[in-house]
Amino acid sequence: MRIKIILLLLCFPLSAFCQNVLELNSLERTFNLNPYMVYHLDEDGSQEIDNITKLSTGYFVPIGEEGARFPNTNAVLWLKFICKNTQDQREEFIIDFIDPSLYVIELYYPTQDGGLKKTVSGTSKAQNEKSIKGNRNNLWVELDPDVETTLYLKIHSTNNMTISAEIMNDEIALENNIDERTFIGLFYGALITLMIYNLLLFIITGTRVFLINGLYTFLVSLLTGSADGFTAQYFHFLVSWTNGYQDVFIAASSNIVSLLFMRDFLRVSEWSHGYDKGLKWFIYGIVGALALVALIYPRAIFVYLSYIGILVLLVTLFLGVLSVRENRPQARYFLAAYLIFGVFILFFILSILRIIPYGVLVKYSIHFGYLSCISILSFGLSVKIYELYLELLEKEKEKKNIIKLKNQELEEKVIERTKSIQNKEINLRSILNNTDDSIWLVNDNYEIIDFNKAFFDGWKMAYNTELKFGTKILDTIPNPEIKKLWEDRYAEASKNKKSIYQDVYTINGEKRYYEINVFPISYEGKVTGISFFSKEVTKRTTAQQQLLTQNEVLKKVNKELDSFVYSASHDLKAPLASVLGLIGLLRRETDDTNRDQYYNMMEKSIVRLDQFIKDIIDYSRNSRIEPELEEIDLKGLIVNAFDDLKYIDGAEATQKVIDIDEDLRITSDSTRLRVIVRNILSNAMKYGHKHGNKPKIQVSALRENGHLLLSIEDNGPGIPKDQKEKIFEYF
């Protein structure tokens, strides 16, 4: 016997390996995933996907054709199924779980590079985190053709878990979603209408029962929204705030508010103080018991809440029967409504307790139940509304006389204010017509609706046309270019954009400048007209142009000043260097004859320095005085320039070649020419070639067509081509 049992246990895992493969052979149908899924419970939730993929199929249990339901547990549920895309190309599929309350769903499937791709869904995920946005727990997967793909699902939830799923292409998923949302849209549309209706009734009548009924409707919509997935979609902060226990909060609140609604609707305090007080303590007991269970064992709160729901239903029906026996107004409507609602609530609770299977009737039980309930209660509330209407009607009669008197006073005020507005309009029109600025307004068809006298006169002077109200202003512009310009401006303003334009017009041979401000007139985001304000700014523009011209002059003066400072310092260095060199020679010289020679040379340098200073003074006045033309011995000027620079470092070693005729005379400004030549020669000595070949400077001159061509050339490296344009710039 033991041997048979052992053999049976050994054979059982082998049989478990025969997992069915789902062949997706059509894109026009929906496939039930349940028969192809197997599950494994990770009791402590410690296993990761790498561990699960290594488990043999023997560790997994089939889900079954109808799916499976799991009680409230801390364990993590791992699902596994194998599918094959029999289409001839890579296809996208949607996995749809019918239970929208699952807290976390993670899907792992292999990618082409050998890794695992992860997509997520569940009520704990915000819309931007989910694989597919929406109210359903949908997951997106892409499968290669003719390849068996093993997919893994990781699920855990704070509530009971209903595991049932389908796989389809995205077109079918979209079609199913549209069909479902059509019904659900009508349902929630009715609830929203009912909430607004009750809120308005509360505002109008001040009766609290309407406010409580509106709040109860809102909580019921959240409760049904949990079953539809909309609560997690649109009120995700509730999921985050309650850490997945939003259904507990919503269900508990709806039960408490339903008791408060019953208390006000049946006016329990009017026919039984005892029952009214007991009802209050019953509400306190529900709150206290729920808080206690939440502290001790939070996961048990779902089951406990189911029993609370049944108890609340029984209390509601009990007080409904008592109110009927007391012949309370609308009591029969209340009892009938909650008897029907109770049947659907019972279906829902029995499903939570796993007594009946989860299905469409269970999923939409609260929907159907509440719609039936509210339809019946509407008759009862309509009676109450009619009673209130009669009371209000009586009050309205009393108010009519007061209103009549108020209307008379109002008419007198309207007449008085109309006169005031007319006077203000006359004053405003007077102000507009006495301003020099042109003002005009057009509607959205560019028809003139108003203008002031300045615009009227200016238009008549420009186009010899008298404008009239209602005229399309663009049709009155004869110049095609100006017309096109203003068409673009009107079109831009029609897009609700403010603009400022600067225009120049020649009037009576004189240029006049105008600044035009454009302001669109919009109502509820749509442009209904455009206002224009044109102001002549000729004086201001002319002053600005003069200011710009003066700025340019100042810039030029500053640049010349910079050049002057640079040139002055440059020309003073040469004679000073000569004096310093002679002083050095004097310190080493012992022969008095040579010393006298050095003194004479120093005197010449100082004289030249004095001449340089005079030249600088002349140079500083260069831009302010006319050139002093005189006959100049060009060769002598060049020789004197070399002589001025003979004490510069490298001057003695430089070969100087002067190829100028002795009798060459020119007429020019000697001071300006001397400064130019001396600067060029100084640069040639300082920066010419000093290594290798002997430094050489060659100066030549040629008279040609009444002009002098003066050439100063050294055998240095020269100036790079890209720098030649800058040789006359400062530094």
What is this structure's SSE topology?
Layout (H helix, E strand, L loop, with lengths): L1 H15 L4 E4 L6 E2 L5 E5 L6 H6 L6 E2 L5 E3 L5 E10 L5 E7 L6 E7 L5 E6 L15 E7 L4 E9 L4 E3 L1 E4 L1 H36 L2 H21 L1 H5 L1 H7 L3 H20 L2 H4 L1 H24 L4 H25 L5 H22 L7 H4 L1 H69 L4 E6 L4 E4 L1 H11 L16 H14 L5 E9 L2 E14 L2 E11 L1 H51 L3 H29 L9 E4 H11 L10 E5 L5 E4 L1 H18 L8 E9 L2 E8 L17
Description of the structure:
The protein is of the alpha+beta class. It has 5 domains: 16-168, Immunoglobulin-like (Sandwich), CATH 2.60.40.2380; 179-392; 438-536, Beta-Lactamase; 551-625, Helix Hairpins, CATH 1.10.287; 627-731, Histidine kinase-like ATPase, C-terminal domain (Heat Shock Protein 90, 2-Layer Sandwich), CATH 3.30.565.10. It is built from 19 helices and 23 strands. Strands 1, 3, 4, 6, 8, 9 and 11 form a 7-stranded mixed sheet that branches. Strand 8 and strand 9 (116-121) form a beta hairpin. It is elongated and about 145 Å long.
Computed CA radius of gyration, to the nearest angstrom: 51 Å
| Strand count | 23
Largest sheet: 7 strands, mixed
In one word, what is the shape? elongated
> How much helical structure, as a percent, in the residues?
40-55%
Number of helices: 19
Strand content: 15-25%
N-C termini distance? 113 Å
User: Runs with pLDDT <50, length 5+?
Assistant: 1-17
The number of domains: 5
Mean pLDDT value: 79
Secondary structure class reads alpha+beta
